[in-house]
């Protein structure tokens, strides 16, 4: 099998849109091949700028998102390449995938369920079976501990949370339910999801309603005026070609005593799950481990804290971590 692959670089999207000239003769359509072949990858790793990679997996069939966007099986080829500089797993395409994030995307994503139905299904899951319940607890524990140790007078602020790429809003909903004194803002590009998010209400007898502010669109630096005490990126960073840029842009909206939470699929998914696993699909530009996620925080100017990998109740292998402003960390961690 030949893996001689000549890659052309693109200035603006070094990984995602690099069309490479290969007929990718093997494997056949519909097959996947695992390898450890060293190949030169003349695209810049968005994390460490290395130009050397190792092909770990070749996929020769479009996934359901690509099929929904009309990408043909004929001549299809996609490689998962491990960066030899930092270990980041990069999805290298033979084709332009920008069409995936079209109107058909959300239909393919929810697989016939409405956004509200999906929200309700996840909301009713018992806590021990819910990835989201674990996530909410992880975030609340971290913030409580960090603010208590730092002596940040959190009792006297009206904290605000910004959830970037909210989807069904299940995280924000559960978080606000558990921490009702917080106010929430959701940013979400899908119009269908935004229509659903605007209907969410946490009003209950005897309790103040905590409506969620909804911003329709992609997060861009400067798209919000205020600073947030918590910014969350749940399974979002792997969907952009430049993870450092997104986290750095998000950090611009972080309050000086704020906390950022980033959760991404773990690269071990490639070794331990079938090649058809959703996290190995074309929507994912990068897969991480604890080291590469910590590096994303550092390169974005944040101090990484509590970066960990774990198996979620759904079976997903996940890595997550928190980032705070360096000055904030130094302020409370320095011995007086
Ligand atoms: Zn790298």
Describe this structure in words.
With 336 residues, the protein is an alpha/beta fold. The protein folds into 2 domains: 32-106; 114-335, Vaccinia Virus protein VP39 (Rossmann fold). The protein has helices at residues 64-68, 103-110, 115-123, 131-150, 170-178, 191-197, 243-251, 269-272, 290-299, 326-333, and strands spanning 6-7, 20-21, 32-40, 52-59, 78-83, 89-93, 160-164, 183-188, 212-216, 228-234, 254-265, 286-287, 302-311, 317-325. Strand 8, helix 6 (191-197) and strand 9 (212-216) form a beta-alpha-beta unit. Helix 4 packs across helix 5 (170-178). Mean pLDDT is 85; it is low at 1-27. Zinc ion (ZN) binds next to loops.
Bound chemical compounds: zinc ion
Report the portion of residues in β strands. 25-35%
- How many H/I helices? 10
CATH superfamily of the largest domain: Vaccinia Virus protein VP39
Q: How many domains would you count in the coordinates? A: 2
- How many β-strands, per DSSP? 14
What is the CATH class of the largest domain?
Answer: Alpha Beta
């Amino acid at each position: 099998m030949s893996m001689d692959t000549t890659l052309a670089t693109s200035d603006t999207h070094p990984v995602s849109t690099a069309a490479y000239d290969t007929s990718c003769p093997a494997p056949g359509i519909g097959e996947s091949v695992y390898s450890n072949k060293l190949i030169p990858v003349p695209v810049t790793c968005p994390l460490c700028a290395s130009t050397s990679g190792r092909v770990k997996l070749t996929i020769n069939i479009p996934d359901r998102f690509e099929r929904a966007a009309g990408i043909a099986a004929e001549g299809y080829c996609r490689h998962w390449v491990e960066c030899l500089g930092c270990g980041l797993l990069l999805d290298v395409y033979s084709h332009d995938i920008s069409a995936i994030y079209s109107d058909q995307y959300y239909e393919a994503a929810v697989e016939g369920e409405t956004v509200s139905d999906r929200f309700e299904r996840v909301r009713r899951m018992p806590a021990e079976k819910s990835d989201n319940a674990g996530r909410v607890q992880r975030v609340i524990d971290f913030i409580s501990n960090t603010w208590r140790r730092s002596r940040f007078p959190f009792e006297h602020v009206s904290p605000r949370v910004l959830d970037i790429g909210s989807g069904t809003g299940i995280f924000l909903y559960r978080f606000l339910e558990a921490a009702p004194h917080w106010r929430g803002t959701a940013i979400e590009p899908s119009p269908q999801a935004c229509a659903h998010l605007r209907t969410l209400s946490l009003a209950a007898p005897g309790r103040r309603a905590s409506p969620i502010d909804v911003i329709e669109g992609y997060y861009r630096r400067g798209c919000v005026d205020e600073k947030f005490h918590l910014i969350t990126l749940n399974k979002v960073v792997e969907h952009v070609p430049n993870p450092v840029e997104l986290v750095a842009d998000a950090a611009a909206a972080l309050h000086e005593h704020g906390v950022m939470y980033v959760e991404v699929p773990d690269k071990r998914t490639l070794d331990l799950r079938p090649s058809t696993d959703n996290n190995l699909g074309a929507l994912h530009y990068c897969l991480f481990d604890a080291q590469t996620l910590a590096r994303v925080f550092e390169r974005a100017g944040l101090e990484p804290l509590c970066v960990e990998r774990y198996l979620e109740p759904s079976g997903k292998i996940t890595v997550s971590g928190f980032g705070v402003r360096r000055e904030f960390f130094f302020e409370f961690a320095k011995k007086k």
